[in-house]
Structure to design on (832 residues):
């Protein structure tokens, strides 16, 4: 059985930040796309570079900038998976994608975790001194959205009334603009217990009857997962128990992960 | 413990129709899906077309329903007008499943099976709510990679004999094409999805490799699919197996439960690493693009030695080479429905899944008469030597080279050997496949002058491999020891990808067979392994640059150690 100092559940921006700031980590993720929590929910927002506290996150920002994936605080979400994949390779992080942690047993005697991991190769067990779970929402979900990526062939400015630049929690649908003029995201608030098939049906019904001022926009793809918030959505908010989605944007998450790891390892 | 008549693991291309068919037969059905939507790469990756066949009525009906409503839906339409919008198909699948009472659990990963002796009696899985187990009368593995069959202890067929590699996979993302949605599905590399470390590394490498210099609005991407486009993973060792060598020689299973119509869609770039039959048929006989009807027997879905579980999808019992043709979406949907009917029949009649007769299945999903399907294949063949001769003279010989092989006569081919242009070359290839050494003079000359001429495939596209490189491979196949130094020269030059790979294969082959060539061959190969030399890259049609240097060095090292007769 292989042993790691830390097992990180979730190839998320926050989880990857944690791994960068530590040694001897293994990251596992049930999916095949790192950064899925932002890429698969179509995050179009990035913080200002001066808000980043680590050089590594600042460099990531510069990389996005040089690739034309960021401009004026707006992000092209499709850039996240390839850029983060490249980042993981460059930092030599140990990672198992398509791998689901299914059981975590604390071995009191050895003072470590024994984690059962399932992937196409079968069940495997690894040991770790510590487990950081960035995937499981802790506590109550206070905001849940099912998003859709929009495209317009003849983009016009999105009417102000539909925009929510501060990403305040709303209970009615709103839009955010993407990096490119033809790109926007529909944020569709859902009750905490709504399932994927209901969310898909409701967003489809809503969009079919959308107001005339949005008629030029079409849904290209719907989200691959819900966007959920379990804490307050403010910049000073404490991150509750490492949850990957409790950040406003991927760079803040990466930055926070690195900072958190460094504060523990110093 | 909760109990279902049928549990379907995987809600992708095959799984959706397995669940629909079983539920349609009155079964209580649970469907476990790893992602958050039904339909697999077809919906999640907008891989909308079905290749050449979508003859499952239920599938056609759902497509028609979506096609009818997609204009004015507010959703982006697919690039091809006759394709159903992938996002709307997700909903259509879910509605159809719900109407039939199928319980769907998303983000569910199968973790084990319950067994009573050799019979599978239930499934364990993990989902966001925790770990669960449910009992079942029958289980359908529609995971694509045969994960459930693996957990149940089923056996699998070996992969490619030489390099144990699967077909290349696609790292699919959706993008905006002329104001429509489409998928980018170019070959991303090789991986074995059952090897977690290799698979993870490939997920990252292939995504990183797709980074453009700049993201541009004119080439706007939407998102990466949550599942990669895996063309090949495990192959079940079933009660009946579809074998490439048999299919290309017209030997088919009687009593099929489905027909695939496809060409052997060899995404593998370097066919010189494959079994001889693959190179001879696909390259030397230029049959890469020739589609044919392939019979799929029920036994290809049923594992040896394990009961209560049925395979639905590309992990069916077909050897590595045959699997290239029996993995297309249309057929996989059909096989899903077949598995659903088999499961329902086994549960209703309390009998093993292997005891469900093909007649019972084809009564539900009628197939075209087998005689007609086989005759269609037969019609591809030329039978008259004069007709074959005329076809061999053309740049596009169609099926003539393979027809000549199947006909088995040689005399009329000898008369073509001295003809210029394509006739002599094509005749030499046909004779080489017939293992007739009269072809050697032409082959040696093609190799000596590094002939870069290319014939055309049946699709009127130039074949990837040029005449000279094919000749280099065939010289090894014909055991032509006299060409050894010529092959050595070609390999040392490393000027062209296909010449180099073919020369390497022929050197290994001749050295393994002939004691007096063993040491010279070992020297050449050792020098290659120890050097920093790389072999020329191949520029794939999607723009990826394929470098086989590492693979060839690894295989060379294995050969040096074990003297395998390749």
């Amino acid at each position: 059985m292989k042993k790691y100092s830390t097992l990180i559940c979730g190839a998320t921006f926050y989880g990857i930040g944690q791994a960068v700031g530590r040694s001897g980590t293994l990251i596992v993720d049930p999916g095949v796309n790192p950064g899925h929590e932002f890429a698969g929910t179509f995050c179009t927002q990035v913080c200002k570079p001066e808000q980043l506290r680590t050089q590594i996150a600042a460099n990531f920002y510069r990389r996005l900038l040089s690739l034309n994936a960021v401009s004026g605080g707006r992000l092209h979400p499709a850039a996240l998976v390839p850029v983060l994949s490249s980042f993981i390779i460059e930092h030599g992080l140990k990672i198992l994608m398509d791998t689901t942690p299914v059981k975590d047993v604390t071995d009191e005697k050895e003072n470590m975790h024994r984690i059962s991991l399932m992937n196409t190769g079968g069940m495997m067990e690894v040991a770790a001194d510590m487990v950081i779970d960035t995937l499981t929402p802790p506590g109550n979900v206070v905001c849940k959205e099912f998003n859709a990526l929009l495209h317009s062939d003849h983009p016009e400015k999105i009417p102000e009334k539909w925009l929510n630049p501060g990403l305040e929690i709303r209970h009615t649908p709103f839009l955010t603009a993407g990096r490119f003029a033809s790109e926007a995201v529909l944020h569709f608030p859902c009750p905490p217990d709504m399932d994927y098939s209901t969310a898909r049906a409701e967003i489809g019904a809503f969009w079919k009857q959308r107001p005339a001022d949005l008629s030029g926009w079409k849904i290209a793809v719907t989200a691959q997962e819900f966007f959920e918030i379990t804490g307050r959505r403010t910049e000073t908010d404490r991150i509750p128990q490492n949850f990957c989605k409790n950040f406003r944007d991927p760079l803040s998450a990466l930055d926070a992960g690195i900072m958190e790891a460094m504060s523990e390892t110093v | 413990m909760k109990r279902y008549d049928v549990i379907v693991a995987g809600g992708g291309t095959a799984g959706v129709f397995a669940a629909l068919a079983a539920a349609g037969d009155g079964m209580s059905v649970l469907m476990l899906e790893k992602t958050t939507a039904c339909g697999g790469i077809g919906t999640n990756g907008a891989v909308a077309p079905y290749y050449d066949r979508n003859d499952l009525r239920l599938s056609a009906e759902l497509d028609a329903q979506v096609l009818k409503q997609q204009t004015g839906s507010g959703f982006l339409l697919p690039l091809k007008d006759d394709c159903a919008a992938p996002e709307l198909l997700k909903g259509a699948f879910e509605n159809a499943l719900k109407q039939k009472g199928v319980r769907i659990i998303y983000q569910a990963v199968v973790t084990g099976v319950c067994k009573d002796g050799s019979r599978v009696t239930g499934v364990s899985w993990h989902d966001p709510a925790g770990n669960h187990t449910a009992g079942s009368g029958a289980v359908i593995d529609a995971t694509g990679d045969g994960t459930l069959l693996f957990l149940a202890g089923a056996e699998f067929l070996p992969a490619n004999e030489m390099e144990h590699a699967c077909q290349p996979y696609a790292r699919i993302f959706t993008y905006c094409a002329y104001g429509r949605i489409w998928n980018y599905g170019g070959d991303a590399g090789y991986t074995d999805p059952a090897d977690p470390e290799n698979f993870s590394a490939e997920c990252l490498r292939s995504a990183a490799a797709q980074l453009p210099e700049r993201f541009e609005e004119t080439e706007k991407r939407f998102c990466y699919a949550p599942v990669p486009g895996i063309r090949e993973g495990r192959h079940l060792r079933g009660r009946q197996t579809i074998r490439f060598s048999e299919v290309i020689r017209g030997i088919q299973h009687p009593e099929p439960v489905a027909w695939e119509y496809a060409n052997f869609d060899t995404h593998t770039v370097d066919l010189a690493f494959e079994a001889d039959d693959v190179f001879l048929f696909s390259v030397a006989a230029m049959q890469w693009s020739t589609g044919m009807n392939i019979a799929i027997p029920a036994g290809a879905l049923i594992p040896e030695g394990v009961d209560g579980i049925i395979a639905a999808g590309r992990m069916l019992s077909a050897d590595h080479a045959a699997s290239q043709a029996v993995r297309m979406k249309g057929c996989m949907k059909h096989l899903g429905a077949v598995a659903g009917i088999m499961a329902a029949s086994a549960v209703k009649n309390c009998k093993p899944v292997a005891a469900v007769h093909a007649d019972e299945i084809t009564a539900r999903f009628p197939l075209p008469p087998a005689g007609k399907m086989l005759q269609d294949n037969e019609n591809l063949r030329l039978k008259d030597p004069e007709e074959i001769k005329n076809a061999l003279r053309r740049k596009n010989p169609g099926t003539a080279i393979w027809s000549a092989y199947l006909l088995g006569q040689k005399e009329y081919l000898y008369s073509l050997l001295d003809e210029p242009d394509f006739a002599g070359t094509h005749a030499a290839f046909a004779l080489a496949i017939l293992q007739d050494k009269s072809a050697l003079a032409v082959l040696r000359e093609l190799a000596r002058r590094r002939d870069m001429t290319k014939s055309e495939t049946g699709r009127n596209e130039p074949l990837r491999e040029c005449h000279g490189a094919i000749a280099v491979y065939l010289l090894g196949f014909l055991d032509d020891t006299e060409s050894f130094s010529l092959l050595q020269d070609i390999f040392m030059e490393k000027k062209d990808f296909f010449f180099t790979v073919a020369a390497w294969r022929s050197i290994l082959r001749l050295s393994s067979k002939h004691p007096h060539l063993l040491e010279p061959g070992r020297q050449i190969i050792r020098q290659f392994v120890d050097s920093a030399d790389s072999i020329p890259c191949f520029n794939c049609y999607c723009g990826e640059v394929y470098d086989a240097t590492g693979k060839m060095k690894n295989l060379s090292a294995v050969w040096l150690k074990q003297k395998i007769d390749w």
Observations:
- The helical segments of chain A are 13-20, 36-39, 55-66, 80-90, 196-208, 250-265.
- The longest helix of chain A spans residues 250-265.
